[in-house]
Amino acid sequence: MRFTPEELEAARDRLVPDVAASGLRVLFCGINPGLMSAATGHHFARPGNRFWPVLHASGFTPRQLRPSEQEELLAHGLGITNVVARPTAKADELSAQEYREGGRLLAEKVARLRPHWLAVAGVTAYRVAFGDKHATIGPQEHTLGDTRIWALPNPSGLNAHWTLATMAQEYGRLRAAAFGDDA
Q1: Contact 72/65 with Cβ under 8 angstroms?
Q2: Which long-range contacts (CB under 8 A, 24 or more apart) does 153-158 make?
Q3: Which terms does the record give in the GO molecular function aspect (predicted)?
Q4: Cys-Cys link to 51, which of 44, 62, 108, 150 (CB 3.0-4.6 A)?
């Protein structure tokens, strides 16, 4: 689906609903919806975003899902939300205040939904949202109640120093931790 620049700009006011349920194994958390995601209503909808290919390559899904199939994640014990709900063309349009408020709201959401793991796709977003400036990719010491946190590489095509293969390896580490013998 193609959108004009005007249609994408008009999507700035739209919210992308969470794909979530109580007790998920992993609740993936993007930084915030891009304008393509806001226009379509689907997470990680920009064609260059590698979230869906990485999810499959790491073994989370048996085939590569399209953004329009995002609801199928629930059957695999997975969901998606964002640190900040406001759609933007680029994440650098967000303020540190928005990240911190997003972290507070995300902590409330996690307390309600109680996923086993919260997987934040973007270590910098995690650092700002949760005030952990020294966080690195991987499992975090910090928890939200019983929910463990894993900082993942951002799947954006702009994050070029992570290849599809290296991202799939890191996401695969999370899959093994989240599903154990079921993986």
Answers
A1: yes
A2: 153/121, 153/122, 153/123, 154/31, 154/121, 154/122, 154/123, 154/124, 154/125, 155/44, 155/49, 155/50, 155/51, 155/54, 155/121, 156/46, 156/48, 156/49, 156/50, 157/46, 157/48, 157/49, 157/50
A3: DNA binding; pyrimidine-specific mismatch base pair DNA N-glycosylase activity; uracil DNA N-glycosylase activity
A4: 44
Sign of torsion, CA 75 34 118 115? negative
Domain hosting 127: range is 5-182
Q: How far is residue 26 CA from its own chain's centroid?
A: 10
Structurally, the chain folds into a number of domains equal to: 1
Rounded to an integer, what distance in angstroms lies between the CA atom of residue 39 and that of residue 169? Answer: 31
Active site amino acids: 32, 43
Q: Which two tokens stand for residue 27?
A: 């609740």
What's this model's pTM, rounded to 2 decimal places? Answer: 0.95
Q: Are 116 and 24 in contact (CB under 8 A)?
A: yes
Tokens of 103: 């972290």
Burial readout 161-183 (b: 16 or more C-beta within 10 A, e: otherwise): ebeeeebbebbbbbbebbbeeee
